[in-house]
Each structure stands twice: as structure tokens, then as C-alpha cells.
Sequence to fold (635 residues):
Amino acid sequence: MGDKTNAFTTRYPTWVTAMLALAALFGLFISYHQYASTRRSSGATIDDAAQVQKWAREIVQARHRPRVASLEVEPPDRISRRVDVALSAAEIRPSSLLSVDPQAPSRVGRTAYQLRATQMVLQDLTLKQVILFSSALRDAENGMTVRDLSLTPRTNPLVQEEHWNVRLTLTQMIFSPISDL
Amino acid sequence: MIIRWSPQGSLLQSIAQPDVTELVKFDCEQGADSIDSIERFTNAVDAFVSQHSINRKQLVVCTGSEITYLVRIARGALDAEPTHDSIRFAIEAVLPLDAEAVEVDFLPRGGTLICAAVETTPLRSFLDALEHRGLEVHHIVPESLLVYQHLIAAQKIPATVQLIRKTQGPGNWLEFLTIANSVPVAWGKCSTNNQAFSQELQMQTELLDIEAPRLWIQSDDAIDKDGESSAVNAVEVERIQVDWNGSLAAASQSLLSHQRQAWFDLRRGTLAEHDPLRAIRSSVRAFVIMFFSAVLVSCAALCWKASQYASRGNGASETIAAVFQETFPNQRASGAVVKRMKSEHIKALGQRTTSGGVEEPIDAIDVLVPLADAFPPDLAMAVRSIRINDGDFVLDLDLGSHEQAGTVSRALEAAGFHTEPPSSVRGSRGRIQTSLRGTFSPSTAPTTEPADGR
Fold:
């Protein structure tokens, strides 16, 4: 009995201690791993919070500025409706509208913007009608502007009542980043 | 507990009570290392330990001059740096013993190595038997040297001295030890006759540089019943009474409590090799406790710091959700708030500002209206064409004279247009065909009326 007790006290504590030491080291490793992971994620979240606050300030500031671009390309039926409304607003006879030619959107260089041009040809308009028609087409909320306008007098320039042949391009600017938002 | 081992028998002694001793004699007929002797010895040790409540884990085995030797070896005699192995083989040339049959320890003294050697064969079986019974031998030391080391430390004898003592056990022998500056330099045994004593005395005295006192040690366990020998009486000696058992117990206690290191400790792994760590067990235990404590404290500190970082992270997450809710009150904050916020930020800035070299478009009506208003009203002219492209314009006019081109240009400048010098050619019917190019730049428009009073 005494021998067994001795054998236990002299031999078992060594490997038991070794196992405990290994377990302690493993526990220390786990603790450090958890600490490092928490520290890393916490730091990232704090950085994110600062970044989000900065973005929020810039978003609020941007809201005070007018829009210059749309997020979506306007479909062709909407363009037709827009033209109809503009013709009505400018009291232009439909026969004066010779053509409406929407183009495919094209990217501006390597920027995040696309331009979509719709070329129109009208004839026999007064200058007032041209201005009213163009103003009715313009829609800043959707990035619509009449960027190009060409006026050619239809009648003899010396005649008092001026009428013009008009060629204009209704341009929609679309914000469309290459990478996903 | 101390076991004072000799081939004839062992004297068991308690360290706490030095006067408590028990002699275990070995049967000379069967041999000291016979199984019966060993069994009887270990039984006696067990009984002694139990009877006197002695700690089984702290044993000191003392050896006598019967199996222990002190040898001087010149450093030059060794081929390499002195190590226990190299000295074991060097001793082979000095003592009639195999290198495998001795265990050694040494002290360097100048160019000489003072080496102690013990025969392992007679001891090994006893020590193994003790360890099998759970008795732990911490030190194996030459008994006399241990006692004298203690006496020097206690300043009961000088550091340089020649010591003479009648040995215990059978026979009429004198133990002769020379110590120089607290280092034993010679240890010999000689008979009490005049010639042998004189030779040993002369040989050991030659090893000393200075005159050393000679002390006759009268110990309680080796009382010279016949009185001092005539040989000793022939030289000048000072007699000193030593409590041998008490000094041995005190010296052993100093070893066990690590207060002192023996000159020669011969338990070097070969003997009593069962537990190599026994001498440093307390240090190992302290280290283990400190190690576990350090690990525990480190784990706790890491967990505490991790919880702090987690708390900060949670606060930041709540801030993110609150900022999103404040910026977009009608939207619900989903899991990927940061990604969504980034997307909204890009969209908001992309819709309301332009970047990457893209300029905000200028509506043609914003150019046409001020352009029409800017024409001088009293000027007779004909417009052949107006072309406007993103703020730039080209104006083709038929005018009456070249001067009128300049007038139109100044009028446009006054209205906020930046114009290039007009180019004019005389056309049919005497009309001047003028082409005006310019850019609409309202910010540069003057606030005063033109000087020509148009």
C-alpha cells in the first residue's frame, strides 16, 4: 500500500502537472486569441462609427444641393410622355415635331456617370415656344437638361415674325458607378 | 534523517534529535549487499522513521573513508575542460577503481582539481532499496568533510587547519585532513604507529603554503579509549571537543534547507537516481505555482481587456445604428448598416455633385434667354443661326457694318458672356457676315451698365 502511495505521489504529479500546464497554456492561447479578435473587431467598429458619422454629415450637406444626375435611365415611354407634355406647355402643334431619337446611354470616360441623349428636330417655332418647350423638358430631379440647341431661322430673316427650325438634344445624366454600390 | 553508511553497518540518526540514533549492523558472513542485509536495513530504516516521526522525503546519506576518497588531479592531466565524466576517467588512473564504479565531484583550486570519489557498487543497492520504500535521498556526502565544513562555517575551527581524528569502527586508524582556505586539499587515513603518522603528516604539510594549526578532534562517537596515540603526542596539537552528532545534524539541515552547498555532493544521478528533481522540488513547486498564477492572472487580464474592447465595440455599433436612423428616419437599420451607409453616401454625393472631371451640365435655355436679352434692341441685324452646346455658343449674324460686330460683342460681354473677338466677312448685298463665339459665364458679369449707353 505504501509503495502504491509513493508511486502515485512521485510519478503522477509530474504528468498531471504537465497536462495541467498544457491546459493552462492552451487556455492562455484561447484567452489571447479572444482578446486579439475582440480588440481587432472593436477597433474596426469604432473606425466604422467614425466613418459613418462623417458620411452622415456629408449626406446631410449634399441634400442642400440640387441634383445633377439621376440614378436610373428614363425609359422611352417616359421620354415620349415628357415630350408630349412639353409640346402642350409650349402650345406647339404636333406636326412641328419632326423627330425624336433617343440614343443608348454612353459612359463619360472612366467616370461613374453616363449620358443618355435624345435628339429632337422641330420646325416653325417662335423663340418663345422654343424657350417654353425646352423649359418643360428640363427636369433637374431626373438629371434632364437641354445641353445642345441649334436654331436656324425658317423664314426670311428680314421678316418681322421670326420662326425657327430647331434641333435640340435632351441629355440625361445618370450616376452609375462601375462597381456595385 | 541521516544515514551514516559503512560496509559494517549503518547508523541511523534523526536530524531534529541528533542524539536519537540506531545502529544497523550488516551480516559479515552473507556480505553487506546481500538481499537479507538490504531487507533488514530497509526494515530498520522504515521502523526508525515511523518510530520517530521522521520526514521520509529528506534523507542525507553520509559515507566514510572506507568507500570515499579525496584525490588531487592537475588540470594539465585532463585533455579537455574538467567535467564529471572526464574526472571520473582521470581518477581511474589514480585509484584502483573503474570509471563506471565511481561517482565524483570536484572543487577547482588553482591548477589543481580537488576531487572526491565514492564507490557506487556497495551503495547502489541500498539506495535503490530505500527509494523503493519511498525514502528520498537528497544528498550523498563524505561525513567528515561535511562536519568540518560546518565547523569552519561556524568558525569553530580555522579555515586553514590540519585535523586529526580517531575513526569509528574496528581497527586503530587515524583520519588526517588538511584544509587550506576552507578547501580540503588532502584527506588520508593512517595507522597510529609513528612511522605511518609521520609520513602522512609530512606529506600533507607539504601541501600548505603557511604554518597551519593542528587540531585533535575529540568527538563523542569516536572516543579514544586507549588515549591519544604516542604518534600524535609526538607533535604539537590542540585538542578540541566536537559534538559530532549535533554538528552532522546541523550540517545536514543546512544542506536540506539549501542554506549551504556541500564541498562534494556525490548524488549526481548515478546514485539514488529515482527522482532527479528532488533537490530542487521546492523550487520547481514554486515555479509551477508561479507559472499557474501568472497564467491565471494573464487569462483574467486578457478577458477583462477583451470585455472592455467588446463594450467599446457595442457602443460604436449603437452609435452607427443611431446615426443611420437619424440620417434616414424612414428606413430600418438592417445588419449591414455600414455597407448601406456607404452606398447611400456614394449615391447622395454622386447625384448632387460631379466628380472625376465631369462638369455639371449647363442648360441651353440658361444661355439662350440671356443671350436673346443681351442683343442691342436698336440694332438692325439678321440671325442666321444660333448653336448652343453645354454653355458654349456660336452666333452667326448678318450686320450692316464691321463696327456693329464690336457693338454686339460688347453687349454680350456686359450680359455675362465671355466672347472671342468676332470674325466678319463682307457677303452678298453688302451685308457683313459675322460669327461670334463665346461662353456663358454669369459669375463674371459686370453689375454696371455699359459705358456706350446702349
Notes: The beta strands of chain A are 97-102, 106-107, 113-125, 144-153, 164-175. Chain A touches chain B through 73 residues (CB under 8 Å). Chain A has two domains: 1-65, 76-175. The helical segments of chain A are 2-63, 76-89, 127-137.
